[in-house]
């Protein structure tokens, strides 16, 4: 086997065999979901039931950074990534108390170009306030991993070169300054991704990036995620997890 010959020649241990692509759940807003045209909101009661379901199955939600670090050590088979996109203020009031109660970590992908603003990029539906710089710092102080969702929520596959670089690299620099820690994770707005966007994210120094359904681009800089919404009861979550394990082939490096 080539891998073992390499390891003899280099004196290094062979890399652990890749497991199935890790399961990463995608949330956005946690609050009242009576007016929710994009189906991005779960109520705190639903989130609590979903976290309880994970616990019953012996699984635990963690940040994507923690998930990938565990897998790099050959561990983490019982960990699930929990991600919250856009950085809504209801993360602090709706999600964080439940994450704490269930002993879970999470990654929050924020938009440093829209701090204290709202979801102005959505043409329809209610305006939802976004965390201020102080709110992002409060989440970070509670142990939440802060990642970048770009500066302003632009579809990177349609962005020109200058915009692409600004959205990816400048957002990382601004968040590092805001939180005082390096920023390892990126999340593609709308989940749209192509090879050029992946390359820009990799070049900007991110260790990983989350997409939704990146197909052949799947890898550390294009991780698939499962949308988890208000309709996801225990039974539907069970199906989603089963389907994920069937459909996602092992990929090197994740
Ligand atoms: Zn988003």
TrEMBL record:
An individual GO BP term: carbohydrate metabolic process
GO MF annotation terms: hydrolase activity, acting on carbon-nitrogen (but not peptide) bonds
InterPro entries, sorted: Glyco_hydro/deAcase_b/a-brl, NODB_dom, Polysacch_Deacetylase
Subcellular location: Secreted
Pfam family, one: Polysacc_deac_1
GO cellular component: extracellular region
UniProt-listed SUPFAM superfamilies: Glycoside hydrolase/deacetylase (SSF88713)
Name listed for the protein in its UniProt record: Peptidoglycan/xylan/chitin deacetylase (PgdA/CDA1 family)
């Amino acid at each position: 086997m080539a891998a073992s010959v390499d390891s003899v020649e280099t004196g290094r241990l062979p890399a652990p065999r890749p497991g199935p692509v890790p399961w990463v759940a995608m949330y956005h807003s946690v609050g009242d979901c009576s007016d929710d045209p994009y189906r991005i909101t779960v109520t705190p009661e639903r989130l609590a039931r979903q976290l309880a379901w994970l616990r019953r199955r012996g699984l635990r939600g963690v940040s994507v950074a923690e998930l990938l670090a565990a897998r790099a050590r050959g561990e983490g088979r019982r960990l699930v990534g929990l991600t919250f996109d856009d950085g809504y203020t209801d993360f602090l009031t709706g999600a964080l108390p439940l994450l704490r109660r269930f002993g879970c970590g999470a990654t929050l992908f924020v938009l440093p170009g829209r701090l204290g603003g709202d979801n102005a990029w959505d043409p329809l539906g209610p305006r939802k306030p976004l965390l201020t710089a102080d709110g992002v710092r409060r989440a970070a102080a509670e142990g939440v991993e802060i990642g970048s969702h770009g500066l302003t929520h632009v579809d990177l596959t349609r962005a020109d070169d200058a915009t692409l670089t600004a959205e990816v690299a400048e957002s990382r620099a601004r968040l590092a300054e805001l939180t005082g820690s390096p920023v390892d994770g990126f999340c593609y707005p709308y989940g749209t991704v192509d090879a050029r966007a992946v390359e820009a994210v990799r070049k900007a120094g991110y260790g990983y990036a989350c997409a939704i359904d990146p197909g052949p681009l799947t890898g550390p800089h294009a991780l698939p995620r499962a949308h988890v919404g208000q309709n996801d009861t225990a039974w539907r979550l069970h199906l989603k997890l089963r389907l994920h394990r069937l459909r996602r082939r092992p990929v090197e490096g994740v």
